[in-house]
Design a protein that fits this description.
The protein contains 8 helices and 5 strands. It is an alpha/beta fold. It has a single domain, classed as P-loop containing nucleotide triphosphate hydrolases (Rossmann fold). The structure holds thymidine-5'-diphosphate. The site of thymidine-5'-diphosphate has 18 residues, from α1 and α4.
């Protein structure tokens, strides 16, 4: 099973991904914890390049291709092999981040960016995507002061990104759950647990 956590910056995805993996392992599952961009040494190198705030004028197509390149590397070397072994993969961000940040945020087009990522991944899509929804201004405030290149974009950009995630989720309620990401870490973790448990129970039914 392939589970992805998505959402705007500062939605708490990284913490919640870790907690979900801990719970799955405590329940006896072999769970792989990974993230995008990243997950392999080469993809982590692409991450530090694409998020580097010194590259202020980075061309938006270059940006989209770098995220897609990191994703191809990650799927081929980490995600697909783990799924073939029958493990659960929990990933912090995936294709929908490219659709929201590059397709919508950078106006490169939803279809073009989806097609690019589907080509990069050989068509691998998550079984379940949890969208952590949070007011984008609150998210950026939570992200702190050491902001990466994308986090430095204006509030209007982050607002469009947030709306894009929610729109993707509403379009396909079978594969998505939107979770309110405001509240304490424990409260949000509990909401995610309920969403994942319901999804697994639905698959077994
Ligand atoms: P993230 O891992 O959430 O950063 P951190 O946890 O260190 O704050 O994400 C890194 C940034 O990359 C984030 O601003 C979203 C952006 N991003 C894209 O623009 N497109 C993508 O395809 C991905 C995976 C991330």
């Amino acid at each position: 099973m392939f589970i992805v956590l998505e959402g705007p910056d500062g939605s708490g995805k990284s913490t919640q991904t870790r907690l979900l993996v801990e719970r799955l392992r405590a329940a006896g599952k072999t769970a792989v914890h990974t993230r995008e961009p990243g997950g392999t040494p080469a993809a982590e190198a692409i991450r530090s390049l694409v998020l580097n705030p010194e590259f202020t004028g980075l061309d938006t197509r270059t940006e989209a291709l770098l995220f897609a390149g990191a994703r191809a590397e990650h799927v081929a070397n980490v995600i697909r092999p783990a799924l073939v072994r029958g493990e659960v993969v929990v990933c912090d961000r995936y294709i929908d981040s490219s659709i929201a940040y590059q397709g919508v945020g950078r106006d490169l087009g939803i279809e073009r960016i989806r097609d690019l990522s589907l080509w990069a991944t050989g068509g691998l899509v998550p079984d379940l995507t949890i969208v952590l929804d949070i007011d984008s201004a609150l998210g950026i405030a939570r992200a702190g002061s050491d902001l990466d290149r994308l986090e430095r974009e204006p509030a209007e950009y982050h607002d469009r990104v947030r709306k894009a995630f929610v729109a993707l989720a509403l379009h396909d309620p079978e594969r998505y759950r939107v979770v309110n990401a405001s509240g304490s870490i424990d409260e949000v973790a509990q909401r995610i647990q309920i969403a994942v448990d319901e999804f697994i129970a639905g698959r077994l039914a």
